[in-house]
Amino acid sequence: MLAQPELIACVLELTATHGTQLERTQGHRAHALFLHLMQESDPVLAEQLHAASQTKPWTVTPLPQQARRLHNGETYPLRIAFLQASLYWPFAQTFLQRPNRQLRLGSSNFNLQAIHTTKQHSPWAGVSSWQSLIDQAQPTDEISLWFATPTCFKLGRDRQGKQRVGLIPDGQSVFQSLLRRWNAFAPTPLASPEQIEQLDIQIKRYQLRTEMLHAQDKQLGFMGKVSYKLDGDAHERRILATLADAALYLGIGAKTTQGMGLVQRISTQQPEQA
Amino acid sequence: MLAQPELIACVLELTATHGTQLERTQGHRAHALFLHLMQESDPVLAEQLHAASQTKPWTVTPLPQQARRLHNGETYPLRIAFLQASLYWPFAQTFLQRPNRQLRLGSSNFNLQAIHTTKQHSPWAGVSSWQSLIDQAQPTDEISLWFATPTCFKLGRDRQGKQRVGLIPDGQSVFQSLLRRWNAFAPTPLASPEQIEQLDIQIKRYQLRTEMLHAQDKQLGFMGKVSYKLDGDAHERRILATLADAALYLGIGAKTTQGMGLVQRISTQQPEQA
Q1: What is the tens place of the pLDDT at every residue in A199-211?
Q2: A207 and B203: CB-CB below 8 Å?
Q3: Which top-level group of life is the source organism from (chains A, B) (predicted)?
Q4: Where does residue B75 rank: exposed (0-12), middle (13-18), buried (19+ CB within 10 A)?
Q5: Which ranges of A128-229 would DSSP assign to H, the alpha helix?
Q6: What is the second-level CATH architecture of the domain A7-116?
Q7: Which of B164, B206, B212 sits opposite A202 (nearest CB)?
Q8: Tens of pLDDT along B131-150?
Q9: Of A182, B23, B105, B157, which residue has the fewest beta carbons closer than 10 angstroms?
């Protein structure tokens, strides 16, 4: 049993108060809404968040859905992961104090109907702690990840000085990104970047495609499923498994506060695609 | 007009002489059939081919098709690309001398109905010459390739000494593979590997998945479509365009004589997948 959750992934159930046409991507609007809610719940904290360093202790993601047209009363699920429980409590409290409050996302109005934090309600919800992630991880030969929203990595700059964007989920980019977030927010680092760098994490199977995310700026990312064949001893492979399990909370790559990099570990099957 | 084709991609139209169940992958059987046909057309040449070095001057590919069950009279298209015209002529002659000859592929019997070498008959057929590929190539900012059968690259060996297989169509693997084949068979090299190595060939958009090829051994590969953003001056980008155009004949990666690495350049669109 978790004495005290430190990592909280919650799914906000927003219901449309009128028929509304959603824009293509709501990531940046969802992020604005999140900051607005934080502002309301704890102005001082919100100010600190705004000034926070590059790696933010939260992710915000409108969950992928088919329909763009919502009818009155239909649900729009918004997912927020908190990497610091101290952020979650004031946020949740505001909601408890003012249930059914109205929220605005772009030109659409919603009621905040519920906040779910359990897997029963959504595969994207859950609570955990850094230590229990470590305790529960098992060393394994293969890890599979599901990238559910466009994901990309900021690499260096090209010859013309333009930002290079990594659109391949190579093992190093993926696990270094997870490690960076882990080490930024967990009480103790899980490993050093150099330790991971030594490991040979080979892409083994995948089904992937690039997709454009329309946030404030357009940003290409990749989506889909990837399996990695792991190298290293049991201890090293357990570190990788811990990071993969933590991906649900941490997110991967760039712009995870605007809808990118929504990822979770999935069971590794060995289908013979033919 | 082509005075003398040097590169010939032909599609053999085989028709089933009875209802037959195709095996999952026919690549190695198709290759055996090809060698058998060569043996018949020119025994001395066939012997040389058999002893040929690693990079073979031909590719053999059963064209991807939906059905595994063929009815009597149904067509099974087999694609052979010759990187040396001297191989094609005796091969074609044998066919001309004995039209409608029976051929065996595994446990299935076929009639060799026709040999097509024009785009009108199949997008995988065509003739060209090394020089006309150079003459017709245009420098461009972006190149798209369609990998129509599983494709993979043999990389080095891993810690355990096991063969590593590259399952990502990164720009260097793709264009170095093309260059290696070009330089092996064309009268003059197109560029040096080092020249290509200096170029920044970024993956920009893609839709890809891994698939198992069941040849004599199983081999995973990737299939799908990829667009590359090209770096370099006009001359360098023209070299890349030439190689992309030549991919139809050259094939890419490992086991192109057993059905892998069937590739062609496709027009680059800028769809906004969203």
Answers
A1: 999 999 999 999 9
A2: no
A3: Bacteria
A4: middle
A5: 130-136, 171-185, 193-197
A6: 2-Layer Sandwich (3.30)
A7: B164
A8: 999 999 999 999 999 999 99
A9: B157
